[in-house]
Amino acid sequence: CVENNITTVKENSSNYKILGFSAEEFSNFPEIKMRAKTKLNQKLFKETIQQVIIATSRDENRTFLNGALFKIIDNKIEVITTDSHRLSLKNIKPTNVENPLTEGVEVIIPYRTLLELSRLLLDNEEVFTEVRIGEKQIMFILFPDGQKNSIRIYSRLIEGQFPDYHQIIPGSFKTEIKVNTEDFRDKMERISLFVREDLNTVKMEAVNKRGDQKEERCEIILKAESPSTGEATEKISCLKKGEDITITFNTNYILDVLKIIKKENTIIKLNDPLNPVIITPDKDKDYTYILMPVRTD
C-alpha cells in the first residue's frame, strides 16, 4: 500500500517501507513543437541503428559526433555517424513522411538514445515506430497502433554542426574486391590475436593468384606481428577488378563492420593506401561504411 509517499510491502514475516516523492514533483513530459514526422518499420530501424552506431564518437570534446545525424529530405532518410576515422551511412525509405519544411530536416540523435532504441525495437517488419522531430527534442513512439503496448521515448537532440560527409566519399576506384564475409571475418578475428596492442593494425595485400591470368581471381593476404606474441599470415580467396594493392587497417574497425554485414559476400572498394576505403554488403546500395587506412611509415 502507499500512504504519505511511503510504499509498504508486506509478506509473511517481512515488512519493507520505501520512501518516495509526491507524484506532483515528477517532471512533465515535454511539449514537442513538431517540425517533421515519419513512420518506420521496427526491423529496418533496428538494423539501421546497428549498422551506424559502431562509428559514433566517444570524444566528449566533439559532442556533435556523439550521435547520429538523422536527415529527412525529399521523402528519404539518411542516418550517418562518424568518429573521424570511419563513417557509416544508411539510406532508408520510410512508410510516410510529414515534413512541411522544403529544405529538409537535420537533427543529431544521441548515442545513448540509439542504444536504448536498439534494445527495445523488434525484428518485425509488420510493427512500426513513429518518429516526431522537434526543435530541441525528438520522440519515438513504439507500437503507435496499439495503445496498450505503446512506449514513448523522449530525447534531447545534440546541438552542433555535423561535418559535410559527402566530400569524403570517393567517386571512383582503382580496385574492387569481392570476398566471402564469414571467411574474411573469421580470419580477421584469428589474426587480431597477433597485432601489436599499441598499434592494433593488420596489413592487407590483394594480388592476382600466381599463374592465373584472369584478372578477377585474387587472394587477400593478411599479415600481423607482435614482439610479445609472434607473427601470423592468413590467405583468403577473392574476386578482384583493377590494380593490386597493399594497405593497412585498424583491426577493430574492420571487424566492427564485418560483424554487422549479413550478406554472403562483402565488397571492398579502394584507391591508394592512404585514401578512404568503402566497404558495403554485396548487392546492397543502402549501406556504406567508409574507413581511413592507417599510415605505416
TrEMBL record:
Residues 40-164 form the DNA polymerase III beta sliding clamp central domain. Keywords: Cytoplasm, DNA replication, DNA-binding, DNA-directed DNA polymerase, Nucleotidyltransferase, Transferase. Residues 167-295 form the DNA polymerase III beta sliding clamp C-terminal domain. It holds the Pfam family DNA_pol3_beta_3. One of its GO terms (biological process) is DNA strand elongation involved in DNA replication. It is found in: Cytoplasm. Its main location: cytoplasm. GO terms for molecular function: 3'-5' exonuclease activity; DNA binding; DNA-directed DNA polymerase activity. One of its GO terms (cellular component) is cytoplasm. SUPFAM superfamilies: DNA clamp. Belongs to the beta sliding clamp family. PANTHER family: BETA SLIDING CLAMP, DNA POLYMERASE III SUBUNIT BETA. This is DNA polymerase III beta sliding clamp C-terminal domain-containing protein. It comes from marine sediment metagenome.
